[in-house]
Design a protein that fits this description.
This protein is mainly α and 176 residues long. 73% of the residues lie in helices and 0% in strands.
Length: 176
């Protein structure tokens, strides 16, 4: 008696999950560029991380400097949220490549996906450590790692948009 109820519950949960997943995928596929730009966090800018933030990968600051420039957990959370949006922007650029432009290399898209996941993981680790012990060296190292990956991801997104969707690049630069 218990086994059939458990099976029904599991199947029902899977049906609900896949229904929500499908709805979210459909919603994501019909988003406009402007709606994606509006989703970027406007209350925090990553321009503070590096002098040539969108044009060059890498950070030239110490872990303490980056922690201060991030404004602590506020900047970490903004990077966490923006990583998802940047990934959706890459998918948007892939779906809407300009006529005559070469197709986007799948390796670039995979690198951006990997960057987004690494950023989110580093941010969650840093926020978890921060909740337990405030701004220790481990928190600052994870924040630095997340900021470094975020800087690289933003630079790769800039190159991708410049090569494949130059019309929307100025909006991206202004929003970042």
């Amino acid at each position: 008696m218990l086994l059939p109820l458990l099976q029904i519950a599991i199947v029902s949960a899977l049906v609900v999950y896949f229904g929500k997943w499908r709805r979210n995928m459909r919603r994501r596929n019909i988003q406009s560029w402007d709606s994606l730009l509006c989703q970027l966090r406007s209350d925090w800018s990553a321009r503070e991380l590096s002098e040539q933030f969108l044009w060059k990968e890498g950070l030239t600051a110490t872990t303490n400097d980056i922690w201060q420039r991030l404004d602590g957990p506020r900047g970490l959370w903004a990077m966490y949220q923006n990583a998802r949006v940047l990934l959706e922007m890459a998918d948007y650029a892939n779906r809407n490549t300009m006529p005559g432009a070469p197709a986007i290399d799948p390796m670039i898209l995979e690198t951006l996906r990997s960057d987004a996941m690494q950023i989110r993981l580093c941010v969650l680790m840093a926020l978890g450590q921060y909740a337990l012990s405030q701004a220790t060296e481990g928190v600052k190292v994870n924040a630095f790692r997340a900021a470094d990956i975020y800087s690289g991801m933003a630079a790769r997104m800039t190159v991708l948009l410049q090569d494949h969707a130059a019309v929307i690049l100025p909006d991206f630069v202004a929003a970042m």
